[in-house]
Design a protein that fits this description.
The protein is α/β, with parallel strands linked by helices. The chain has one domain: Rossmann fold, CATH 3.40.50. 41% of the residues lie in helices and 16% in strands. It is built from 9 helices and 7 strands; from the N terminus they run αβααβααβαβαββαβα. Strands 1, 2, 3, 4, 5, 6 and 7 form a 7-stranded parallel beta sheet that branches. β4, α7 and β5 form a beta-alpha-beta unit. GO terms for molecular function: hydrolase activity. InterPro entries: Isochorismatase-like_dom, Isochorismatase-like_hydrls, Isochorismatase-like_sf. Keywords: Hydrolase. Pfam families: Isochorismatase (PF00857). This is Isochorismatase family hydrolase.
């Protein structure tokens, strides 16, 4: 029996219903992840460009665009268990360039920036409140990394009651294997994994 058949027989991989009020959550396209002078980063220029096309479309249609970044206070660096496991993340400190959103994303002054301290954009933040307040029914998750903060955000988004879409060409990781494995798993359990062209067409149709 094929892997796909095993998942299908178990009832996974169903299609996600799409609403009429989407938002884009751009996860951690900060310099600490996107500027390869830093050891925590990788080349994400293609994924940033694909995401920017969607964020510009969303803004033009009046849909929310929300960015996230990880930023730690010095005392957190010394105490958080995650930073003992992933020590490179300790460089993402408040006030440093590493936590600034990469300007090539096209971020605007009016775009909310959620500062988080863990993998999920929902954990310990007011993201769910912002989305509910904006009457959002469908969350499009892009950003970095696919196997880490993107995945955690996707899981929490669906657990918070939102339909979730993940354009694969708008998500970046440091290696191909975890990127593909996590896209597959998200597709089976939590979200529809699609691409930027599909999301662009759908948002454009909502705006007409």
């Amino acid at each position: 029996m094929s892997q796909q058949q095993v998942y299908a027989d178990a009832g996974f991989g169903q299609k996600v219903p799409r609403g009429i009020r989407p938002a884009i959550v751009v996860v951690d396209f900060s310099y600490g992840f996107t500027d390869t002078q830093y050891p925590t980063a990788a080349d994400m220029s293609a994924e940033i460009a694909a995401t920017r096309r969607l964020t510009e479309t969303a803004r033009a249609a009046g849909f929310p665009v929300i960015y996230t970044t990880i930023a730690y206070q010095p005392w957190e660096v010394a105490t958080l268990p995650w930073l003992r496991k992933a020590t490179g993340m300790a460089a993402l400190t408040v006030g440093s360039r590493l936590v600034e959103i990469d300007a090539t994303t096209g971020i605007r002054a009016e775009d909310p920036v959620i500062v988080k301290h863990g993998a999920s954009a929902f954990h310990g933040t007011n993201l769910a409140g912002l989305l509910v307040g904006a009457r959002v029914d469908t969350v499009i998750v892009t950003g970095a990394t696919t196997s880490g903060c993107v995945r955690a955000t996707v899981v929490d988004a669906v657990q918070s009651g939102f339909n979730v879409l993940v354009p694969r060409d708008c998500c970046a990781d440091r290696a191909t294997a975890p990127h593909e494995a996590n896209l597959y798993d998200m597709e089976q359990k939590y979200a529809d994994v699609t691409d930027a062209d599909d999301i662009f067409s759908w948002m454009t149709s909502l705006a007409t």
